[in-house]
Amino acid sequence: MAYTVLARKYRSQRFDDVIGQNPIAQTLKNAIKTGKVAHAYLFAGTRGIGKTTMARVLAKSLNCLAVEAPTTEPCCKCDSCVAVNLGEDIDVIEIDGASNNSVEEVRRLRENAIYRPARTRFKIYIIDEVHMLSTSAFNALLKILEEPPSHVKFIFATTEPNKVIPTVQSRCQRFDFTNINPNLIAGQLKSILEQEKIKYEEDLILPLAKMANGSMRDGLSLLDRLISTGVEPLTAGLLEEFLGCPNSEKIYNLIAKIGDSDAAGTLTATEDLINAGLGEVQLVDSLIDYMRDLMVIKSAGTESELLVLTAEQRQQASRLAEKFDVAALVYNITTLERLRWTLKNSDTPRALLDASLLRFTLSEHFLNVDELLSQLKAGPTRQGVGPAVVPIKKKQIVDHNITSTATGKPTEPATDKKIDLPRLNDIQSIKSHWQNVLEIIAARLGGGSGGLLASAEPTRFEGGLLTITFPASAEMQKKMCESNSRAAQIQSLLSEHCGTDIRLKFETAADEQTQTAPAPNQPKTTGQRRNELINDPAVRTVLMGLDATITGIDEDQQGGGSP
User: Fold this and answer.
1) What is the Cα–Cα distance from 541 to 514, expressed in whole angstroms?
2) Domain that holds residue 31
3) What would the pLDDT profile of 264-281 be if each residue is shown by its tens digit?
4) What is the pTM of this model?
5) Domain count, the chain
């Protein structure tokens, strides 16, 4: 006897058997119960998720000969039900839209539709891949869809509903089928293996279900391939050997090397995966999938239902997640998604892949400006903050009590170096010693305060009131100096070192922006954008606080040029 593949052997026979499409099944059942079955339906969704199966179940329910009226529970034993299952019923006509897409085929359908069914209640046309019909064929359908004979029902199935012309869609009840949850697919796979009396290991099921990408038919086809190997019990190792699934341990090892900032280890782990037969794009897809799990763990916890992992995989992923923060994972995933499209069109995909993974590995050198400003105020935190805003070469993070170097090794506490200043009696003496003043502020109050004043200059000193003027573009820097009691701290420090009471007043050069701003609607040059970025108050604050230099600027083309 000929072998029947699992996708056909275990095709759902009733509404309640259709996996993952309960809302649609319930709606159709209610329509049958209330006698409000439409004359035309459009089932839309990706491949292998139950569109044609649902169409056949609906056809059997409408035409079951074991009852006197349409039913929600077809017997699946009468001549009509059996013939529908085999695709041979004379009153349920299944048409392949890809090979019967001409206007002549549709005209023939219209001519035959006027005749009543031979033995059942309705003549039902199931047109699969209906989007393949030509425009003329669609137009030929319009009249019969608008005013069909009472004994005719149409069920259209398509993976690309956007290609079905609006005039046809408006004459149908449309149902959008969703991808099936991997847990539901896993449950069905286990049930089938038990019915087939095939031994398997538990850690095989979930990875296999995830490989199906929401398609029950794909999951069953993959299971068929594993069964065909003749190996029992079925193990997770077979996924790598026969289906090309990446080894999860090797992927976890690569992610661990990235999290440990191990550049050499990252390149070695990548080479190991490539040598195992994994392509660059496949590797990127796997990293996106696994890093998504880490992101979910960091955001929703290890026990989140959003994770499709075994208990052992959850524990392993939880340990890996400790090496990252959410911002870093978000950055990595979005960067990998852009990278995968570039790799497909690149002549040097391996070099691009290695460069991107090293960028993730050395992420401690690419610091987020907002977090750095917080560090400069509250003290350094752990290394490896997340996404890059401006690539910065780290040297030191200065705090009142601790100095942390780029290697992460603590050094001796910074001493409050006393810088002797002459008596600052006039504006000229203040201007000539302004750099010394900034050094004192940076040493005592931290690099953040010193960096905020780096772009400003003293302009007036009258009656103990020192006026410090910022460029018009440094309005945010001025406000930061005025907030959090920073002005009072600076005043106290200057008074202590100068031997006289000094009060501060901050202002901006009101006319500077007008003089330097580009003409309205005139696009800025690359040089202007770079200069604006380098002179940005936040960037200058970071550079001053870290004693750092800018090594490069990445411009986000999609984001309108933001760094």
Assistant:
1) 24
2) 6-176
3) 999 999 999 998 888 899
4) 0.63
5) 3
